[in-house]
Amino acid sequence: MKIELSKNEWFLIVFFGVLILFTPYLITRNLGLVSFVGTGEIGDTIGGITAPFLGFFGSVLVYLALKAQIDANEQVRKQFEKQEEEGLINNRIEFLKTKVSILREEINSFYFSYMDDTQKGNVQKFNYQGSQAIHKLLVNSKNSFYGNKIRTPYELEPKLLELKSLLIYFKQTVSEVLNDTVINQNVKDEYVNILAFLFDSKLKGYFNVMEGYKSEHNEACSENCGNFHGIPSDLFEVVKDIESLLNN
């Protein structure tokens, strides 16, 4: 066990060590200062004189042993704290990694299909997946006739609600990465770069193209013509929020 001593501790050990070695010799010299007549054998005399010093020196050794144990315990405590902190960081990294992976998978697996009956007697079903499905959903929702009953666009086309949930999850993930206080900046930058790539390559361009078809209201028009005039505006608002977070 390694024991680190301060200067004062070294001084005390050396001082009392020298004192124990030379005190018996000095005080047993016939200098007229102390008389040892009737004190018994010289061994008993020296033993009686040095016993307090040896006891004190033993106490010093006990102190040093306790000090070393305390230092060792402190090192163990710091090691546990370091391991706990590293475990927390690793768990956080894995958590955010999972969220980014889920987001990427949800975008790539987004599915949209519709029936095209524009040609009489020839009904075709078209299936799209990934960013193409998102784009086709936006295109098909830009100016559709929904009948005379006032309903929200999300009731009329449930895939729009799924797309909205995906965009909100994207925004929450970006915000969570940016505001994280556990992982280091390099890891945060890596995740932000991945999210920026997903946003730019899978979402941003399609919404920019369809900006002109953004609805000014998210229900059928007030005149009850039954026509939903454009893509729900709140989708564009979430996209703008994501873009703002990534740029900042």
Automatic annotation (TrEMBL):
Ranges that cross the membrane: 9-27, 47-66
Record key words, sorted: Membrane, Transmembrane, Transmembrane helix
Entry keyword Transmembrane helix: yes
Highest taxon of source: Bacteria
Protein name: Phage abortive infection protein
Organism of this sequence: Flavobacterium zubiriense
